[in-house]
Write a structure and sequence with these properties.
Layout (H helix, E strand, L loop, with lengths): L2 E10 L5 H17 L3 E7 L2 E9 H13 L3 E11 L11 E4 L6 H11 L11 H28 L1
Parallel strand pairs: 2-5
Antiparallel strand pairs: 1-3, 1-4, 2-3
Bound molecules: flavin mononucleotide.
C-alpha cells in the first residue's frame, strides 16, 4: 500500500481564535480517523504547519479540502511523497497551539530547524519542516508519558 506524507504551511486568517482552532481539531480528528490519516498541526503567531500521512488518495482529497478552507490562505506544500514509516501514527490529529507563549525552548526549536527567530514555516525546506514536527511530536510524547506517570503515582 502506498503511504504518503504531505506537509504544508499557511497563513491563518487574522482574527482566528480559540473557537476556530477547537472546531478544526474536532472535525479533523473525526475525519482523519475515519480515513486512516495521521497528522500533526502546529499553530503559532498566525501561521499553520501541518503534516498529514495516509493513503495517497485520502491525503490528496484531504489537502484539496483544506486548501479551500477560508480560515487560512497562502497554502504552500513544503514536501509530499511516499514514505516507509509514519512519523505521527498515534494521532489522527495532534494540534499544538503556541499562541499563549513563545518560550525560550520553543524559540530554540524553531531556530534549530529554520534558522529563524520567529515561526514562519513557509521559509522551511520540507526536511526542516519534517524535522521540526518530529521533534515537536517527541516533546509531546514525553509530556504525555509524564502525565500518565504522575497519574499512577497520585
Ligand atoms: C489549518 C487547517 C488544518 C486543517 N486540517 C484538517 C485535517 O487534518 N483534517 C480534516 O478533516 N480537516 C482539516 N481542516 C478542516 C477542513 O479544511 C474542513 O473544514 C473540514 O474537513 C470540513 O470540510 P467540509 O466542510 O468540506 O466537510 C483543517 C482546516 C485548517 C484551517
Amino acid at each position: 500500500m502506498q503511504i504518503i506524507r504531505l506537509i504544508y504551511a499557511s497563513v491563518a486568517r487574522p482574527d482566528i481564535g480559540y473557537d476556530d482552532l477547537s472546531q478544526i481539531l474536532e472535525s479533523a480528528s473525526l475525519h482523519n480517523e475515519k480515513n486512516g490519516i495521521s497528522g500533526i498541526l502546529c499553530y503559532s503567531g498566525g501561521a499553520f504547519l501541518e503534516a498529514i500521512e495516509g493513503k495517497r488518495v485520502a491525503v490528496n482529497q484531504l489537502y484539496n479540502r483544506i486548501v479551500k478552507d477560508e480560515r487560512h490562505s497562502s497554502t504552500e506544500i513544503l514536501t509530499c511523497g511516499p514514505i516507509e514509516v509514519r512519523s505521527f501514527i498515534e494521532w489522527s490529529m495532534k494540534m499544538i497551539s503556541w499562541d499563549e507563549s513563545f518560550t525560550p525552548q520553543r524559540r530554540a526549536l524553531v531556530l534549530r530547524h529554520s534558522g529563524m527567530q520567529i515561526f514562519e514555516p513557509w521559509t522551511m525546506t520540507g526536511k526542516q519542516a519534517h524535522g521540526f514536527l518530529r521533534e515537536l511530536a517527541e516533546l509531546e510524547r514525553r509530556k504525555e508519558l509524564r502525565e500518565v506517570s504522575d497519574l499512577s503515582v497520585a
